[in-house]
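Final report, results section. Input specification for complex C-07:
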Amino acid sequence: MDEQLRTLIADVLGIDAQEVHPGMQRSQTGTWDSLGHLRLITALERHFGVALRMEEIERIQTPAELQEAIERHRGAGGV
Amino acid sequence: MHTASSSAPNLANVRELDPFSLDSVQVRRLSREIRARGATAEARIAYAGNVVFEPLPEFVEAHLACHGVIATTYIAPFDQTVQELLDPDSALHRFSPNFLVLHFELDAILPGPRQRDIEDGRESIGTAVSDVLGTITPATQAALRTTSATVLLTNFAGPDCYDLGIADSRSDSGQQELFAQLNLTLAREFRNEARVQVVDACRLTAYYGRGRARDRRLYYLAKMPWHEGFLPILADEICRHIGATLGRIRKCLALDLDNTLWGGVLAEEGPLGILVGPGDPVGEAHFDLQRRILALRRRGIVLAACSKNDPADVEEVFRIRTDMPLRRDDFVCMQIGWDLKYCGLQRIAETLNIGTDTLVFLDDNPAEIELVRQFLPEVECVLVPKDPAARPTCLDGVHGLDRPVITAEDSLKTLQYQKNTARESARREFPSLQGYLRSLRTRLTIETVSPATLPRAQQLFAKTNQFNVSMHRYSPGELEQFASGDRDRALIIRAADRFGELGWIGVLVLLQARGPHARIGNFVLSCRAMGREIETAVMNYVKRLCFDRFGCASLVADYVPTARNVPVRELYERQGFAVIETGEDGSKRYLLERASMRPCPCDWIALEEAAEWTSSCAR
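Structure output:
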């Protein structure tokens, strides 16, 4: 898992970086509520220079899916 | 790139940070740190409206911290503004805010179908506007009635595209028409309400880009109206309102001249060679900068010059170059010579009787600025940008130059300081101080604070640092309560002398005025009214009022020391009060009993009560 992504997730959700693993579920992480999710998305978008679509934002449930979405957009040349 | 946590912004280094450089992650960390520290917050900010405010409050907290203000936040539940305000036991009231940010998104108050009726001509824009105000005004009034907070009310951002496209301006019911009328009506509705400040989201979103300021994804998903990139802009504006209301203001702008006020060096180019005005691009830029500086004068900021030149040359420039927006008499103090700049700045502060921490200094020389920063770190220094095109707006970042309200006193400030200089020279002609004070023929008028004088009273509490005895800075809300009750009184003092009006120069809060044990909540006096025993005349009046008219048995007063209020350290001793308690911090509590009360000599000041006040005393 991307280390920058791990640090950023930990930072935004206010949890220990060790706790962040690819399969960690949004629904089972206390601070990853709907507001935390949007905070996370906007922080990642700024950091990685991408912009996700609304449905993607809604669908993402784990760090692995986040990483996949970011890579998809970066591969497509950003947006 | 992501900042390593070792160099991360934190509360220790926050004053040196540019708040605009902070991203949402850093802002959140700072906000957590502020909350964890649990220090007393100077700004207690509540947010209410029909949106999800997060993460705006974190940005506001972080920006305020960068400006030296600790803030704490309460966010009312979504769309429950009125319920929270009208329920006396609500969490909002328990939080007891001194600021309330109200934000309403238009589409929730004026739903799509209604907008369609307007476009179809079935409903007039006027009706729609009064309906929208019909939601906002009662909520705002409820806030004014049930809290003592200053309300920061956002106006409407305006559309980023028009339903009628390029033909919008042809229609009476177009969106330009709707938003212009909405925002104008909103501004007029609260123009004279001291406790409502309109946060101009319309200008801010236009400045940032309306299309970029709104993140439609976040709005559709979660009713979060703003794009993260816009939040620093909005937070900065909210900080300006809060800082100015709390009295974090700068009173004097000290200006370097060469390559600052004008382009070029006077000693080399001569008065006709320096660049200000049309015909030269650099001259045009300096012309605009001078116009913007002149506008600061209207806000009540006084201007001073601090430069290394020959004083005669500078006088000549102002005599010859009458085409410059700024004239010689726009400046209340000139420090022209070959001294170090910080010495000049100190003399400016002394001449105007203000603290160096209320100065802003503009200079084009980084070395000069560095020196001032070393010797007078409290002065806010601005370096003139290298690019002349950036110069006209170079003072826009200085929050201390903003005023929440501009009173009549403010626009006359330059004149008043000039008269003070005249009074100073009159003083030199008199052999004795008494003779001088008599010659001034000072007259005071005292009345209770009314809605008309409330903004000025609040401003005096917010701005006064030297003659501020208990340091309690009464808020507009507290002052309003005094006006409506009969027990406590806020007295405002106006002064005039043979040189003219000094304006409203002091406020004294008298608690439990009708006794038997009255207390002075605070007494503030503007620095331009100090040094002529106005305080003695006012205290004589207060003693008469309490002991003779209201029959009080005793009068209590407090002094709380700060680095700046040295002039009032022994105010109450001089007025015949006895110290009954001394705190560890040097604070003192005083008592004056009826038996030991006597007026202090001050027959050179005439004092008059306003009729309204006399009748309310008799009541």
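The longest helix of chain A spans residues 34-48. The interface with chain B takes residues 4, 7-8, 11-12, 14, 34-35, 38-39, 42-43, 46-47, 53-54, 57-58 of chain A (CB under 8 Å). This concludes the modelling results for the funded period.
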